[in-house]
Structures are given as structure tokens and as C-alpha cells.
Amino acid sequence: MDELRTSRFSSRVPQVLKNIPWARVIIWTALIGMVVFTVMPLLFMLTASFMTSRQIVRMPFNWIPETFFVTNFLQALRGNDGSWIFTRNILNSLFVATTVAITTVLIASITGYGIAKFKFKGRNFVFMLIMATMMIPFEAIMIPLYMVTTSFKMQDSYMGLIVPFLVSAFGVFQMRQYLTTFPTEFLDASRVDGLGEFQIFWQIVFPNCAPVIATLGILSFRGQWDNLLWPLLVAQSEKMKTIPLYISKFAEEKLTDEGAMMAAALIASIPMFIMFGALSKYFIGGSAVYESRKG
Question: d(Cα 20, Cα 265) in Å, to the nearest integer?
């Protein structure tokens, strides 16, 4: 009884705070501050990409460009050496990040479904073993993984960039937690109708996991899109490097100006904005759906 009263009281607290004028002011001020803190670097990158280096370093900073210096984007794509290697690096990052996102979603969803809905001996042990791998930092296995990659002659290749990240323990955990709440009655009814296990998964389970699939896909894509450490070890040739390596090298060159560097960063951010915009309704609603199904 006491726990019930406590839960009811805690559920009424947000509504009570909304009825207090000063509390609403504090909440809205905090929200606006968080939005400004988040959007400010993006706005700076956008405006600075159309400015010259002199305009960028001028104080106070003028948020509206005096003239839109669009040659920054041409300089970013062409590079200081005029090799146009940035376009190849963009394609490399797109291929690697997309492949890893697709395979992560497929393997994690199948594994999570098996652990969540099939009872077999050692199921909990297998799940805990998968979870234990999340406790190991990547830096601890980076050198052994690099040695394995070298021994299989996957260095400086797409295989070397993709294979170590085909499976995600976090993805398995996320899919398992989501599928635990999936109604078992639907699966039993499908078996009665004569559907096989693969048909049940592909036709019933997988389509109904859109929110968690979108969330996992976005996180997996972003993780590889921003990955700098592993491509730095594996990719030696310029044609196999990814966007983070190009931007790092581009920023270190003496002839690079700040406007072109901001343009390169803006171009590298466009695919993530497109992907998030296309899947935002699933990504934002994923946690809400998961919480409602838990309740």
C-alpha cells in the first residue's frame, strides 16, 4: 500500500510542478539552454563553411556571412593536393557504415529473437557471456584484432574495415530486451497456421520491430561513420581511408584554411542528417514504444 501511494505521489509531481509559474520558467529556460548548447556548434559550422578564414577568426564573430564563399566546398572536395580523394573517402565511409549497420541489425535481431523467445539449456549463460563482452574496452582488444586482421591479409581492404564490426553485443542486448515483450501468442498462432520459424521471424517479428531496428541502425551507422581509430590502423592507402581520416589529415595540413575545413565537416555531416531525418519518427518513438510495452 505504501509503495502504491509513493508511486501515485511521484506520478503527480511533474503535474504539480507544471502548475507552479516559477517551475515552468525554470523548465523552459533549461530546455532552451540545452537546445542552444546543442545547435550552436552546428550553426557555427554551417555559417563558417561559407566564410573566409579572415571572417571566421574575426572577433566578435559575425553569424551572418558578408559574402557566401562557396569555393570552400570545392576546396574541401578537391583537397590541398588537388587529388579529389575526398569523394572516394565519402564512398568508403558510406559503404562501410551501411554494410555494418545492415549486418548488425540482421544478426542482432536474429540472435536477440532466439535468446528472447526460445528456451534452451544455457540460454542465460549465453546472454550473460554476450553482455560480458561489452565490459571489455575496444583499446584492450585492438592490437590482437589488428594482428588477426593482418594474418588473414585483410589489411587495407573493405573486409578489414567491416568484418570486426559485423556483430554488436549492444545490438543483441537491445533486440533481446525489446523482443522479450513481444506477445508470444502471435508466435503460437503463426505456428498453428503452419508457418516455419524463419517465416515467423521475417514476416511477423521483424516488421514489428521498426522502432528498435531504426534506433540500432542509426547508432551502428553513426558509430562507423565517426570511427577514426580502427581505420587509422587498417587503412594505409589514401583510396581506402574514410572521412574521419581525411578530415584529420585535412585539418593538419598547413595550407588548409578554416572555411574549407568547416565545409569538409559540413559535407561529412550531411548523410547523418539525412538518415536521422528519414528515420527520426522511429528513432524518437522507439523508447516510448519500448517503455509502453514494458508497462
Answer: 44
Q: How far apart are CA 11 and CA 159, in angstroms?
A: 51
Using only C-alpha atoms, the chain has a radius of gyration, in whole angstroms, of 24
Q: Read off the pLDDT of residues 179-205 as tens digits, 9 standing for 90 and up.
A: 988 888 888 888 888 888 888 889 889
Cell numbers 542552444: residue: 36
Domain coordinates in residue numbering, the chain: 2-70, 76-294
CB-facing half-sphere around the CA of 227: CA atoms within 13 A: 27
How many angstroms separate the CA atoms of 171 and 134, rounded?
11
pLDDT in tens, 107-166: 999 999 999 988 888 888 999 999 898 888 888 899 999 999 999 999 899 999 999 999
In the CATH hierarchy, which fold is given to the domain comprising 76-294? Answer: MetI-like fold (1.10.3720)
Look up residue 113 and give its amino acid.
Y
Who's near 277: CB < 8 A, 6+ residues apart?
Answer: none
Between the alpha carbon of residue 40 and those of residues 36, 145, 195, the distances in Å are: 6, 38, 53
- Please tell me the distance from the alpha carbon of residue 54 to that of residue 68, in angstroms, as a whole number: 13
Specify the amino acid at residue 45: M
Q: Is there a contact between 87 and 77 (Cβ–Cβ < 8 Å)?
A: yes
* C-alpha span between 290 and 196 (Å, rounded): 27
d(CA 191, CA 208): 17
